[in-house]
Every structure is written in C-alpha cells, then in structure tokens.
Amino acid sequence: MSFWTNLFESISAKRPRPEGKPAVSLRERFSALRNLPEFLRLIWQTSPALTLGNVALRLLRAALPVAMLYVAQLLLDSVVHLSQLPAEQRPANLMPASGYAALEFGLAILSDLLGRGTALLDSLLGDLFANRTSVRLMEHAAELDLDQFEDSTFYDKLERARRQTLSRTVLMAQVLSQAQDVITMAFLAVGLAAFNPWLLLLLLVAVVPAFLGESHFNERSYSLVHGWTPERRELDYLRQTGASDETAKEVKIFGLSRFLIDRFRQLSDEFYQKNKDLVIRRAGWGSFFAAVGAAGYYAAYVYIIRQAVLGQVSIGQLTFLAGSFARMRGLLEGILSRFSSVADGALYLQDFFDFFALRPRIVRQELTGERPIPFPRPIRQGFQFENVGFQYKNGAKWALRNLNFMLKAGEKLALVGENGAGKTTLVKLLARLYDPTEGRILLDGYDLREYDPAELRQEIGVIFQDFVRFQLPAGQNIAVGRIDERQNQDRIEGAAARSLADSVIAKLPQGYEQMIGRRFAGGVDLSGGEWQKIALGRAYMRDAQLLILDEPTAALDARAEYEVFQRFKELTQGKTAVLISHRFSTVRMADRILVIENGQLQELGSHEELLAKGGRYAELFQLQAAGYR
Ligand SMILES: Nc1ncnc2c1ncn2[C@@H]1O[C@H](COP(=O)(O)OP(=O)(O)OP(=O)(O)O)[C@@H](O)[C@H]1O
What we know:
By secondary structure, this protein is of the alpha/beta class. The protein has 23 helices and ten strands. It folds into three domains: 28-357, Up-down Bundle (ABC transporter transmembrane region fold); 367-459 and 544-629, Rossmann fold, CATH 3.40.50.300; 472-534, no CATH class.
C-alpha cells in the first residue's frame, strides 16, 4: 500500500492541479460506470439489428484465440510424434498434422474475417449513433429556456456534451471490445489455471501496476480537459472571431488580428505546456510499468520451459501455455487500461446525461386548477401587467420593476425609453421568453404561465432588433416567420409586399430563390435596411394576434420608414401591436405611448396627452424635433 501510495505521490508531485478544479477520485470514476447501462440502451435503440450482429460476431471472436492455441498445440504434438516415427512411415501418417495445419489456416482466415466484420459494424453503428446523438442534442437544446443559454456553466455543459459525440462512438467500441476480451480471458484462464493457478497470480502482479499508472494519468488528463472547458470555449471563440465573414470587417478596420492571435497563442501555449508535462510523465511511467510486465512474463516463461525440459509438459503444451500467458498478459493489460478509458468515457457521459437532465422551466403551469386554458381567439381584454418586476439571472439590478398597465386588445402601443431602460426585456416577458421575477402578467384574466408556451408563441410575432440573418434563400428567409408555410409562395410574396421586401427581392438575380448572406456559394449580401425589410416580412408571414416590432425600422431610410408604418397601421387592423422605436415620427403613430425609465413606467398616454402633459416624453420629443429644425 505505502509503496504504491508513495509511488503515485511521486508521480504527481510536481504537477499543479488545474486551478480550482478538484481531481476526480477513483470512487467517482467507478461510480461513473453506472452511466454505462443507459449508454448501452441508447446504442441498442440506435439499431437493434446492428447491435445484435456486433455482439454475435464478437462472441465468436472471443472464442477464437483459445481455439487457435489449442489447434497449434495439437499440430505441434502431432509433428513431434511424426518426427519420432521411422522415416518411411512418415508419409502415411501425415494426416492428423496436415489436418490441424489446415484447421489452423481456416481459423486464421475466420479470425481476420470476423475482425473486419466487427470493425465494419462498429463503424456503421458508431456513425448512426453519433448522428442520432447530435439530433437529440439539438432537439433538447431547442426545448430549453433562453436564460439557460445565457448561463456560462450551461454552455460549458453543452460544449462538453457536444465535443464528446465522437469519443462516444469510440467508447461504444471500447465497451464492446472489453466484453469480448473478458470472455477470451476467461477461456484462456481456464487452460492456464488447469496447468498452474499460480501463473494467474503472477499475471496479475505483472499487469496491475501498469493499470494503476494508466488509471492515474487518465484521471489527470480528464481533470485537465474538464478544468479547461471555459478556456477551450474561448479558444474556439478567438479562432472564429479571427476568421469569419461576420467579424472580418471590424477585425480589419480596428487591426484586431494581432490582439486575437496573441491571446489565442497565449492560451493554447499554456494548455500545451500543461498537457506536455502530463504526456511526458505518462510516457516515462508507462515504460517502467511495461518493463515490470515483461519481467512477469519472462518469469512465467522460464517456469513453463523448465517444466517442458523436465518432461512434465509436451512441446505442444509448452507453446499453448507460453502462448496463453503472452496472450493473457496482452489482454489483461488491454482490459485494465481500457477500463480507465472506459471509466473516463463514462465520466464524460455524465456531462452528456447532465445536459439531458436539464429541464425547461418555462412550461405550462397549473395555477388555478383550470387546465388547459386555450389561447383566446380573438384576445378580448388584453395583457394586464400587475406589479411586474424582472431581474436577469446574472444582472445586478432590476431590469424592470413595479410595472402596472394594460396592453389593450387591438391597441398599438409604442415603448419609448433610453438605451437599457428595459424595453426589450418587457417584450421578452410578453413572449414568455422569461417569467417575471415578481408580479404577473395576465392575458384575458389568466396568468400567462397558464397557457401553453408553444401556443402563446404561435400567436405572438416578434421581430427583435438583433433579428437573425439566416443564410437561406430570400423566400425562406421570410418563411421562417411561419416555417410550416414555407411552400406557400403566395403567402411569402404577400408578406414580402407588405414589408417592402418585394422590391429588394425583385433586384436579386434569382429572386425568391436567391441565397442571401455570404456564408454559402452564390450568396448575395444585403444592406442593413434591406435585411430589415426581409425580417419585417417574417412578421407578416405570421398570422399572429400580437405583433411586436423591436426597432424594426432603425436601418430604413426616411421614405421606407414612413411607408412601412402607414402600411403597418392598415395591415394590423384589429390586431394588438407593440412598437419599440427611438424615432418619434414613428412613435407618434401609436395609440398610446409608454415611457420607461430605469425599468419603471414613467408615463403612459397618447402622443397628444403626453405632449400636453409636458413631462419626459414631451422633453424627448422636443429634443428630437429641435434636431430637425
Ligand atoms: N441577457 C441579459 N442578462 C443580463 N442583463 C441584461 C440582459 N439583457 C439585458 N440586460 C440588462 O437589462 C437592462 C434592460 O435591457 P433592455 O435590453 O431591456 O433595454 P432596452 O430598453 O431594450 O435598450 P435599447 O434601447 O438599448 O435596446 C439593461 O441594463 C441591460 O444591461
């Protein structure tokens, strides 16, 4: 005990632990193995036929080594027997030996075929499993809440779960090979134990140190990689920012590439150094343990040869035993070292399952016991904010507080306020991307949380100021507003006409089929205002009862903006709408205007009322008007 403890302490003496990240204990590694049954279940679900085939081939392969060794023993003994016959009798007695030789040849061919068969099934099953897993990861990520995406520990989890997609297929092959080798071992052990059980013990002594060493270094490397997840994310970010179409413009103008490259180099060098120390120590100790293993093997070999010399075993048995011992040593070493990589794989699986264990919190809730509450069509009263307050998880202050007002059905409400006042946050609460931290929002008398979030979102169309520029054909870029209608060309063109995107698309060489954005071959990029018209088209694509436009016209020229809003009033007749804008020419078209300051409601009323009141709105309006005079 103390020898090994000292040994391992000396191995790890000079290695600083990755900052703040505790190493993974052997117990944790063992307990991570409990993830394997679930993992195997997932593999089985991927393809029962491929899994069964794989297992069957491996079972056959497991029995082959002992069969081959045994046939070799018979062959040798019969050759020795043959050599002891008078020369003239030999040709007539060739049969058993040549039969064994043919059998051995057959087994060798079979072994090769089975090896290739399992490799093939492994690769097919692995590919299928990796694809299914990626799909499941995407599906699950789609179910989660926005604030979960804004949490960096969540991202680290997602990152580790994603990164391991490939290694999971390796893990699968390892688990299966492990089972196969254990069975082969069992066959060989029976033969060896029948000869002398002490040889089995010698075998363990020869191999266990190598296993412990391997296990120790695997644990170190898992801790290192695990502890470095945030930095690796940063590395990816730097790599991407340094060379992507979205950032190239600013990186060039500001001359940022040196800054980004230096940071990348610094981080990657640091990781390289840490990893280098580890791999060097691992190689050194690995050689030492291999020597211990070899000494054990040769001790056994000498013993078996001695028995042969004493005439206690035949030459055939000598080859069988020496072969078995060598083979078992190889197998046992393989099993033990694979055990630690399987245990590591199982630790990574923990990240994977942890990610799937995350549950969205924004779901339908039963608050009044009346369920399910169908979404009102049409909305009769509107959205009532009752003392609504909201604080971002990672935000120090309240983004919104004490909000009390009614967004009436059919009303066009404009939100006005300085940068960071809380306008976008209010809109996110309406779409239930977040739930209020305090207070509640009622829709026609029921808490928003009582409606099905998916149904709610179907009835709300939001175009955010940072809308996504999808790298898709123009028509599809509008169709994302109602993706199930993407084949409905009339609807797409109707939406484009309302948002003025039709004139943009008319100028594109391939019209609605034109790929936009620069990411893919043949893509054409648009100006900021042209993109905005496309994004606005998404709002019209959707037949929603509540339309929210968060600074939808910021990039539009004056004429386009005027036209957009003229149409907007007509086209959203009877619908409820919320507009966020910093342009008062737009804002004044709304029925009522809500002024937010520091997350609090400051004023609420029509343009005329607020001007007459001479408060904050009047002040901001005059300020902007003065700029035009
Ligand atoms: N995801 C987030 N996590 C933490 N804080 C946030 C987050 N999003 C916004 N905030 C903070 O909440 C406050 C309100 O932000 P919000 O985006 O609602 O402002 P806004 O009125 O829409 O501003 P702008 O006119 O600049 O678009 C700001 O102080 C902002 O820093």
